[in-house]
């Protein structure tokens, strides 16, 4: 599974960082960055939570 | 109930119900019963506002998220169909990017996102802890009962925003006095307006100082945008004022109303007080945000292109009101939604809104509330309400729900 992040859409809510600290961080402006685009299987539930709470539909989890 | 029996209310099925609706007197923490009925029976329905306009009322969680995340839905209060507010609290004029659409909204919002990043906010935690401890020290040393709103809930966000913006310590008293008047129940509209102008003038002056001599604070960052030609001085002041106003009464009301809700649910309060687990405190913050949903009366928007949703077409030029307080009680998302349960996973609540306008200050608000809920009840374990619940006055008509005062003792 691959995580895709569209940083253009990000509104710096910080929600993905709270939901999946091992997968997301923020740059100096608070915009989300990916720490791992192919996270380990045990992190996928956290990523799904991040997808669900992102207010800007900036995160996707794709099957590839 | 008695009222509905004696009043000859004619059945007019095509007449849109009036909005806002009233809460049930005995359930001050629950959304109006009529909203729950609509959520079950007519999740998309027209309502009538004070000015006779008839926007759509959206009550289900999924529909609200879909609309708030849709770029065809505008936050610009000047758009045709925008559901206008008729409250003395509604304020005058526009307040920076909260009432703008992208791309201008994004351009301005991104200028001030940096200090709200999770790590930056975490770095402020010790300073917030100090503010909270200091206010508790003062309360413990002072007379009982005390009004928790005035002595504790309002000063916290005011002092924290001072810290963040970079308001010098010597000016804290001036700043706090005026911000208090801006939201005070007994202040006349003139007094509120006057206090608001005082604060705006003060912030404009401080931005001027930071233009000449930048420091490491948020006002300097905003001033930097003026220097770079990206904002004029007026827009910069408006932005600083938005950051102040948006985080002030909201956080204060969560502190006071949250404390009241916990005092009314002693089992939950005991769980929180006796736990050492910061994760439980964080979970309690999310649950109280969900359960209390203080930004009631709806996120309001105007639709700019026809949108099909829930078998209905909302037309361009029509208004929509997303009542988040009832979305946070949607049984499709939160099982047994009317129960306060600080151990549940409430993270999907939309107490901070949804879409591109979702609260910018949410990491800060969460941290402040974690410090407060994790400290107050431990330091004053015998805290109790100093009046009957029936005598507590709730802010039913205000745009931000809460209590006018909360007399407490210990
Ligand atoms: C518990 C406390 C808080 C609650 C419940 C809350 C709630 C909200 C909500 C519901 C919105 C969305 C408005 C809309 O969609 O129309 C919002 C926006 C906003 N909030 Fe908060 N807020 C809180 C604290 C704060 C704090 C502490 C700050 C800053 C210091 C802040 C700054 C903002 C700003 C700047 C916006 C506008 C964002 C935009 O339009 O892009 N809020 N807040
Ligand atoms: S949750 Fe979405 S909007 Fe918020 S920081 Fe992450 S990517 Fe950005």
TrEMBL record, chain A:
Keywords: 3Fe-4S, Electron transport, Iron, Iron-sulfur, Metal-binding, Transport. Its cofactor is [3Fe-4S] cluster. Pfam families: Fer4_13. InterPro entries: 3Fe4S_ferredoxin, Fe-S_cluster_ET. GO terms for molecular function: 3 iron, 4 sulfur cluster binding; electron transfer activity; iron ion binding. PANTHER family: FERREDOXIN. This is Ferredoxin. It comes from Streptomyces resistomycificus.
TrEMBL record, chain B:
The keyword Iron applies. InterPro entries: Cyt_P450, Cyt_P450_B, Cyt_P450_CS, Cyt_P450_sf. One of its GO terms (molecular function) is monooxygenase activity. PROSITE patterns: CYTOCHROME_P450. Residues 1-31, 71-93 are annotated as: Disordered. Keywords: Heme, Iron, Metal-binding, Monooxygenase, Oxidoreductase. Gene3D superfamilies: Cytochrome P450. Signal peptide: none annotated. Belongs to the cytochrome P450 family. This is Cytochrome P450. It comes from Streptomyces resistomycificus.
